[in-house]
Specification:
The complex is a heterodimer of chains A (about 250) and B (about 450).
Chain A lengths: L7 E5 L4 H12 L3 E6 L2 H13 L4 E6 L8 H12 L4 E4 L7 H4 L3 H29 L3 E5 L12 H21 L5 E7 L18 H14 L3 E4 L2 H11 L2 H4 L6
Helix pairs in contact in A: 1-2, 1-7, 5-6
Chain B lengths: L4 E2 L6 E2 L3 E4 L15 E4 L15 E4 L6 E5 L4 E5 L4 H8 L4 E2 L11 H6 L7 H4 L6 E7 L5 E4 L5 H7 L8 E8 L1 E2 L4 E9 L2 H14 L2 E6 L11 E8 L16 E2 L11 H13 L5 E7 H5 L5 E2 L10 E8 L4 H14 L6 E7 L14 E9 L3 H16 L3 E2 L9 H7 L1 H7 L10 H8 L1
Parallel strand pairs in B: 3-5, 4-5, 16-18
Antiparallel strand pairs in B: 1-2, 6-7, 7-11, 8-12, 9-10, 9-11, 13-15, 13-17, 14-15, 14-20, 19-21, 19-22, 20-21
């Protein structure tokens, strides 16, 4: 498949560290961006930055994505601003403290609503738009945490597992329509979301962003970033359950 | 165990009690944070001005957003954690350059203001602070001050060169300079003595925007102060290079070097080769701005080459009147103290005054040397150099210092300190500041 230019871009969760870096890379190329985030002041700061770096146009939409009734409006507004949409990047999410969630069912469900349900709700609507266009890329930022539930972050992992499975199916469904779907599975990234957590192989958001932009232009299906996680996760998935349950620190 | 912080000299290494990893300048709120507080950018100063042992470090590394870029007038406002490296990628394609740049592009705007950095064009345009039109300062009591020469003018002056002690610099507005090309027309002239180096500097300063001399520190006697005088101007030809791609560092130093790597024999060899590689008395080059301004940035983490012990940098300025003699005495004192410097740089500061109260540059000759950390003999020799500098009415550069005696620093900056003191944020301090004011 030939690569196509990515100039009209929707970013959901535009104030996330990875999303900001991806947006900067597209801004330098003169893209038109539609940025959705919850915090008005911050998304305005992001938009100003993207304009200064060369974005042709940046529109801002402030919304709390937990409220599902705004999702349709986000899609409609981005369509009317950008016309044809080349790329939708779903980057919003939270990393809750699993120790707190262990004894709080409401907070567990709440995190799932954001990380999985709102992601599916928004992605599903954009899937319709792109399918009708017969073009474009839908990029979902999932996680390697979705590959196997671990004691240290299974609520987050469960939502990312739902997202990954959903994106996997969507990839197949939209392919005949000429729509590209990319599931991004970053390993630990050094962002404010992972503040205070020390993990091996941590990479800066800038490196992940460069991988994402490259994967979009190559129309890759699944991106492990950094690439070494493809092998690590293959091993992790291969660990027999009887052994896995003993890895309590994992 | 907490996180350790170090500066580019890797001496000292300290552990702050708290680290605030600031993601948004909007979230900057220092109330309730354990005092004293200090902002930390890229850690490219050499000594301990950017360190805060047992205090709070506010890491500005993620605050790199540009607020506004006026491409017609060349005015940019950005968050203080933005580095010159990243700034250049935004401004150069539009025909703008930073008015003043230090010898590395890996410094933040906040650090450039706090240390009031200078460059090879000081004789023309003064310090970095001369081109800052405004900044936002956040004090530990929560006050946010928009400072400029018109507004909170005293706080503006105190913060430029104020070593980060007046509050946290959140955003900086800078007037850029126009360029037509990325290319520099450079001349390199061999000088055979200190007298010749100084004379060539004085004559070059008239026609060249950027001048600096590299001195062979091991030459003594009549040859003391011999070296290469470099001078350059931006090419005025619109050659279409402004949008050329940027290069990544050629080499990355992966780990600490062994101590013999940069020791007296290898440094002597380097100095000889560097001086000797140019046979002609003058050499002309048409080179890109990166190798011209940032030759050392081509080797990422070159400071690791000094090994575990780390390194010191020593920079002083003395008035031109009597300056030649002072330089001679300083260089001989260093040689007498067994100090061998990998790089020694001589530059003339001009008459453009900085708005900064504590700003280091003064008209006269400035000498910079870096050296591997040595024993008592080295530190004693540097103390003797301080005495010569002070006797001449000169001073040393805090951004490069890790060892000056407190009483000597207070003597060198006596007048400035009296004016500066009232503007210090009572909730802020640094390892440097405690060292020079309390010891």
């Amino acid at each position: 498949m030939a690569t196509q230019e990515c100039t009209r871009i929707v970013i959901i969760g535009a104030t996330s560290a990875i999303a900001q870096e991806v947006a900067k890379l597209y801004a330098v190329q003169g893209a038109r961006l539609f940025c959705v985030a919850r915090d008005e002041q911050k998304v305005i700061a992001v938009a100003s930055d993207l304009r200064a770096r060369g974005a042709e146009e940046v529109s801002v939409y402030v919304a709390d994505l937990r409220a599902r009734d705004v999702h349709a409006d986000i899609v409609a507004r981005s369509q009317s601003v950008l016309g044809t949409i080349d790329c939708v990047i779903i980057a919003h999410g939270v990393l809750p403290d699993q120790h707190v969630l262990d004894h709080d069912v409401d907070a567990t469900i709440e995190s799932f609503m954001i990380n999985a349900v709102s992601v599916i709700s928004i992605s599903h609507r954009y899937a319709e738009v792109l399918e009708q266009q017969g073009s474009g890329s839908l990029v979902g930022i999932s996680s390697v945490a979705g590959e196997r539930g671990r004691a240290s972050n299974y609520a987050y992992g469960a939502a990312k597992a739902a997202m990954t499975a959903y994106y996997s199916g969507l990839t197949v469904r939209l392919r005949p329509a000429g729509v590209h779907v990319l599931t991004v599975k970053p390993g630990p990234v050094d962002t404010p979301m992972t503040k205070g957590i020390k993990m091996p192989l941590m990479v800066p958001p800038r490196a992940v962003a460069a991988d994402i932009v490259r994967a979009v232009s190559r129309r890759a299906i699944v991106l492990y970033t950094p690439g070494v996680w493809r092998f690590i996760m293959a091993l992790v998935r291969a660990i027999p359950d009887k052994l896995f349950v003993k890895l309590t620190k994992f | 165990m907490g996180t350790t912080f170090e500066s580019w000299g890797r001496h000292p290494t300290v552990e702050p009690s708290t680290v605030v990893d600031l993601a948004w300048t909007q979230d900057l709120n220092l109330r309730g944070v354990q005092a004293p507080v200090l902002a930390y950018g890229k850690g490219r100063s050499y000594g301990d001005v950017c360190l805060n042992a047992q205090g709070t470090i506010v890491s500005m590394d993620r605050c790199t957003r540009i607020r506004e870029f006026d491409r017609e007038r060349g005015i940019i406002t950005a968050e203080a954690g933005l580095s010159i490296q990243e700034l250049l990628r935004v401004i150069v394609p539009h025909g703008w350059f930073v008015p003043v740049t230090p010898g590395t592009k890996y410094v933040t705007l906040g650090g450039a203001v706090a240390n009031d950095v200078h460059g090879k064009n000081h004789h023309r345009v003064g310090t970095f602070g001369c081109h800052v039109t405004a900044f936002t300062l956040v004090r530990t009591d929560g006050t946010v001050m928009d400072c400029s020469p018109q507004h909170h003018a005293e706080m503006f002056a105190a913060t430029i060169g104020g070593l980060g002690l007046t509050g946290i610099i959140a955003t900086v507005t800078l007037q850029l300079i126009p360029i037509a090309s990325r290319m520099i027309d450079e001349e390199s002239i061999k000088s055979r003595s200190l007298r010749e180096t100084i004379d060539l500097t004085i004559s070059s300063d008239e026609d060249w925007d950027y001048t600096v001399s590299w001195i062979d520190v091991l030459a003594s006697g009549a040859k003391l102060g011999k070296g290469l005088v470099l001078r350059g101007n931006f090419s005025a030809v619109a050659d279409g290079t402004l949008r050329a791609p940027w290069k990544e560092p050629l080499l990355k130093i992966p780990l600490e070097g062994p101590s013999w790597l940069l020791s007296k024999p290898t440094i002597a060899l380097f100095n000889t080769v560097w001086y000797g590689k140019q046979f002609a008395s003058m050499h002309r080059r048409h080179i890109d701005l990166e190798p011209f301004f940032y030759p050392l940035d081509a080797v990422d983490r070159w400071n690791l080459l000094y090994g575990k012990r780390g390194m010191l940098q020593y920079q002083c300025v003395v008035p031109l009147e009597g300056g030649e003699d002072a330089m001679r005495r300083i260089l001989s004192t260093m040689q007498g103290g067994g100090i061998s410097s990998f790089l020694a740089v001589l530059k003339m500061f001009g008459n453009v005054a900085s708005p900064g109260m504590m700003s280091f540059p003064r008209p006269g000759l400035t000498l910079t040397l870096d050296m591997p950390i040595g024993g008592k003999r080295m530190f004693d020799a540097l103390d003797r150099c301080d005495a010569i500098v002070h006797e001449m009415g000169g001073r040393i550069y805090p951004a490069k210092d890790a060892r000056v005696q407190g009483s000597m620093f207070r003597a060198m900056y006596a007048q400035e300190l009296a004016a500066f003191q009232p503007y210090i944020d009572p909730g802020m301090s640094s390892s440097f500041w405690r060292r020079v004011t309390q010891e």
